[in-house]
Amino acid sequence: MSTDMWDSPLDDLDNTPMPGDPDAESILAAAVMARTDLIDDLAVDGFDPTDFTIDRYRWVWYAVEALRTSFNPSTIRWEAVHRQLQAWKADGTMPSAPLPLAELSHLYTYADPSTAPWAADRIAKKAIAARLIAHGYDCINRGRSEAFDADADVAAVQTALDGVVRQGADEDTIQVSDVLEGVLTRAVTPPISGDRISTGFIDLDNLLTGGWAAGQMVVVGARPAMGKTTFGLGLARAAAIRNGIPTLFESLEMGREEIGNSIVSAEARVALHHIKLGIVGDDTSAVQRLAKRAPAIQAAPLFINDNAFLTMAVLRARVRHLVRTAGLRLVIIDYLQLMQAPKAENRQVAVSELSRQLKLLAKEFGITVVVLAQLNRGPEQRTDKKPMVSDLRESGSIEQDADIVILLHREDAYDKESARSGEADFIVGKHRGGPTATITTAFQGHYARFVDMGIS
Predict the structure, then answer these.
(1) Are 311 and 354 spatial neighbours (Cβ–Cβ below 8 Å)?
(2) Do the Cβ atoms of 145 and 156 come closer than 8 Å?
(3) Phi and psi of 370, rounded to 5°?
(4) DSSP letters for 274-319
(5) Which residues contact 261 (CB under 8 A, 6 or more apart)?
(6) pLDDT per position as a tens digit, 49-84
(7) Which of 67, 89, 119, 126 is the most exposed place for a label (fewest CB within 10 A)?
């Protein structure tokens, strides 16, 4: 590719008109006057009147749309459309000059409703081309800006590109008969391991019918120092190292070295503090265990990002890339309240928007998103200290959006002399479409892991 392209000014392109089809726009404006129900039919197919490039034709559409709700006729004559346009022009609603009466009459005379789908398709395709060109200009302007930010700007243009092609209103609408066959098949077919992502805990997998499912948003809540990160890394290890499932671990608090230390400690059963002190070499059996597990850890499709600045746009871009290149199936975020929230009237609204976007991310890409979250001080104000779903900070939307909510609780975190020292409860407080329960596990803090009871 010639380098001249990159150095050339945009002026030559700026003089080129944006794509549009005036003939198709006039045909469609005429057609909706002759048959008003076309407005609904075309809307279902995804047509948007903002795709008109000529204001006068777009306002004819708007006039028909407004008049049919008042009179509900199957045909709106040009005289009524003209009166509506003149009224809008007079009160300032319509900023441009409307079509004159003679031209409206001419349109109406030659209206052919059968051509509407063709005209709408032409207009929509030209609009896509125009948005793509505008997106290109935006990319160029961002790239040339002195304030260019590689992470934020690339993520923003990728997100904008997703909106270039609009989705039809009925593309996701189906009849119940379309899903019945699948339901009947699932009812008599136990899920196979490939359909689910193991949590790494036998009882928890059994409760969740085999583990995490695609499209789920899972929230794991706990007070500080309960082991949220340890639990999250355990899920990542179970998926990526033990089962070869591509996994992304987003750490907003712990650095990559600390994460690496914890993974190796848990997998090889090497004391975490020995790794930090660099004295593992003094224990021959520990060195052997480490050497045995190292190849599996090294080969695991586990992706780690420890950049403390994480927005939804950046996360979405990263997920899209890894889904395409690595077949990503699981994302773990440590933790929700440290994510960069969108601007909002208050913190609760901002976190609610984050929660909603994470759920949409899971559904759109067909992945499981596990979000670690901090609880408020509610547990500490209760006698038994056990957390509840309502203890989630800014809990309203988080609780609503989550398919599964798991709360971590360790009695020995509050009472060192507890008879349950070394035990941990996974309290499944919400399980959409399934049972809730409390799963008891062992907490092996020296190995940075939770394990099923009875495992040494």
Answers:
(1) no
(2) no
(3) -105, 120
(4) HHHHT-GGG-HHHHHHHHHHHHHHHHS-EEEE--S---HHHHHHHH
(5) 272, 275, 276, 448
(6) 888 988 899 999 888 888 887 776 777 888 888 888
(7) 89
Helix (H, G, I), strand (E, B) or coil at 439: strand
Query: What does residue 249 show for φ and ψ, rounded to 5 degrees?
Result: -110, 115
In this structure, what are the phi and psi dihedrals at residue 171, rounded to the nearest 5 degrees?
Answer: -65, -30
Determine the Cα–Cα distance for residues 188 and 192; give it in Å rounded to an integer: 12
Name the amino acid, one letter, at 18. M
Cα 347-350-355 angle, rounded to 5 deg? 125
Residue 19 near residue 130 (C-beta atoms within 8 A): yes
pLDDT per residue as tens digits for the range 209-259: 889 999 999 999 988 888 899 999 999 999 999 999 999 999 888 888 888
Q: Which of 242, 398, 241 is nearest to 335 (CA)?
A: 398
At residue 104, what are phi and psi to the nearest 5 degrees?
-60, -40
Q: How far is it, in rounded angstroms, from Cα 399 to Cα 204?
A: 20
User: Residue 213 to residues 92, 311, 338, 357, 367: CA-CA distances in angstroms?
Assistant: 53, 24, 25, 18, 8
- Residue 332 three-state SS: strand
Of 406, 390, 379, 16, the residue nearest 228 (C-alpha): 406
Token pair 């495992």 is found at 455
E strand or H helix that includes residue 84: helix 78-91
Strand bridging mode 368-374 / 217-222: parallel
Q: How far is CA 227 from the centre of its chain?
A: 26
Bridge partners of 306, per DSSP, are: none
| Cα–Cα dist 374/336, whole Å | 8
Strands (DSSP E) contained in 212-289 are 217-222, 247-251
What is the C-alpha radius of gyration for the chain, rounded to an integer number of angstroms?
A: 29
Give the angle subtended at the CA of 247 by the CAs of 366 and 286, to the nearest 5°: 155
- Tell me the two tokens of residue 269: 């059963």
Interval 161-174: pLDDT, tens: 776 766 554 555 55
Amino acid at site 74: S
